[in-house]
Structures are given as C-alpha cells and as structure tokens.
Design a protein that fits this description.
Elements lengths: L6 E4 L8 E6 L5 H16 L3 E4 L5 H11 L4 E5 L12 H10 L1 E4 L11 H12 L2 E6 L5 H11 L3 E4 L10 H8 L3 E2 L3 H7 L15 H4 L4 H10 L6 H8 L3 H13 L3 E4 L2 E4 L1
Parallel strand pairs: 2-3, 2-6, 3-4, 4-5, 6-7, 7-8
Antiparallel strand pairs: 1-5, 9-10
Helix pairs in contact: 1-2, 1-7, 4-5, 10-11
C-alpha cells in the first residue's frame, strides 16, 4: 500500500518522469562505487530520473553522479524534511532539491527510526519503473527494496559479482531467485518500457583511468579484484618488487581502498 501522503521540497515535475531506483550497500567496495556512478550517469543520459535513499555509500554516489552530469535525481528519506539523515548529507540534500526532489512520508521533526527504513525502501521502489541492485550483502536493506519492487510488479535488475565478493552475496541470491541480470546500463535501458535509449554503454570505464598517473596502483586494485592475495602474488601479477608493491599497498590501505588481514590483501 502506498503512503497516504508525502512531504517534498524541489520540483514536483520530476515525480512524473520515468525513473529507476538505485540501491546498494552503505559500505560499498571500490568496484561497487564505480558501478553505481556508471549506471547512474548512463541511465540519466538515457532519460531516466534516478531515485535513491540519500544514505551513505551507493545512495550518495548515485545522487552525486546525477548532479555531476547535470541530471535530476530524487532522494527519498526516512525522516522529516527538517531532520536530514545522515546529517553530513544536508548539503547534498539541498543540491538535490535545487533541481530534483527530496521526498518523505514522515512528518516534520521525525527522527530516524529502524522501522522507518523498510517503509522508505518500499516508497523508493514504488516510485520507479525498475530497481537496480548494484551491490548488496546478505542480509541488507537493498534486499528489502528488491523484495518490495517485486511485490509491486516492478523489474529488479542485479549486477552480478564473483562468489568470493562478500558485498555481492545478496546480488547472487537475488539472481538465483529470478532477478534480471545487468552487466551494463544498456541491459536496464533495453528492457525498460519507458526507455528512450539515447545511448547504450557496453564497456565500463577502465580502472587505470581512475588512477592516472599512478598506473601501478590501478593495476594493483585490478589484480586484487574480488579475491584475497598475498604480497608475493601481487608483486608477480603487476611485475614490481615486493618492496615497491608493499609501499603501494600500504598507501591504498591508508586511503581506504583495501584491507590487510591474516597476510592477505582484499578490496573493500
């Protein structure tokens, strides 16, 4: 059942346009963040408004990708409009409202509560023609949104991940349960009935482009991928000395891209 009422700030015309919901982990991996930006930008350019929940992680990346490309986006929050959560996203909410909409089904002064988020998630999926799950652990709020979208008769698209990618286990579960696979934004565009198909992107941006001119760090992240690898294995993969690779790995760890545990390095 839809909310009996909603409060909003911004341009209400955005609510009439075809939209796609983007949901994901609050602590995404490097690859998850890149996938969210890629899908959000390409879907926006194809004529869709991106709907998400203003949360940490993929939600915020999706909103920012839209704003950076000059597209509109809709943020559905689980608080009153005067109590933006998380608080560090107040400026992001203001930027979204300047061209899109910030929407809530909760009265002013409502604070975040555990019961609010599943209700907010159902509203997100209900506003959209389809929901894209970019990265999701199991269990996670993204699975709640995907279940709601399925109950509402909306398509659910899922980005596939390696079985060893811990943040992608929820995605693999959804695929086993019958969700549609999305290896690129074009998969969503082609199968969505409102698609204007402005442009289909078949190839994701390369990892090296994100790390120029420090190409060795880019090669290290690509070599790490979704697995766990020793220092010696990574040095062999990128053809560097163990000393040089150890320095690069320490830098990547300090910057929050990877973790080192029990002698193995893995992306987070």
């Amino acid at each position: 059942m839809p909310p009996r009422f909603c409060f909003g700030v911004g341009d209400p015309v955005c609510l009439l346009r075809p939209s796609i919901a983007m949901v994901d982990s609050r602590r995404p991996s490097v690859h998850g963040e890149r996938a969210a930006r890629w899908f959000s930008q390409e879907l926006s350019e194809a004529g869709f408004t991106i709907v998400s929940g203003l949360a940490m992680g993929i939600d915020a990346e999706s909103h920012r990708s839209c704003l950076d490309s000059g597209a509109t986006t809709i943020a559905v929050v689980a608080t009153g409009l005067d109590r933006i959560y998380p608080a560090q996203h107040r400026e992001l909410a203001q930027a979204i409202a300047a061209s899109g909409v910030v929407l809530t089904q909760f009265f002013p002064a409502s604070v975040p509560h555990r019961s609010h988020f599943p209700r907010r998630n159902r509203t997100i999926s209900g506003l959209a023609a389809a929901t894209v799950v970019v990265e999701a652990s199991d269990p996670s709020g993204s699975l709640i949104t995907a279940t709601a979208a399925n109950d509402q008769g909306r398509d659910v698209f899922v980005v596939p991940w390696s079985p060893w990618h811990r943040q992608g286990r929820g995605c693999l579960r959804l695929l086993k349960e019958g969700a549609l696979i999305a290896t690129c934004p074009g998969d969503v565009i082609l199968q969505s009935q409102f698609s204007s198909a402005v442009r289909l992107a078949a190839t994701p941006p390369t990892m090296d482009a994100d790390f120029e001119p420090i190409s060795r760090e880019g090669r290290l992240l690509r070599a790490i991928g979704d697995g766990q690898h020793s220092l010696d294995a990574l040095a062999l993969a990128v053809r560097g000395s163990p000393q040089e690779i150890a320095t690069d790995l320490l830098k990547l760890e300090l910057e929050g891209f990877i973790q080192h545990q029990d002698g193995a390095y893995f992306a987070i």
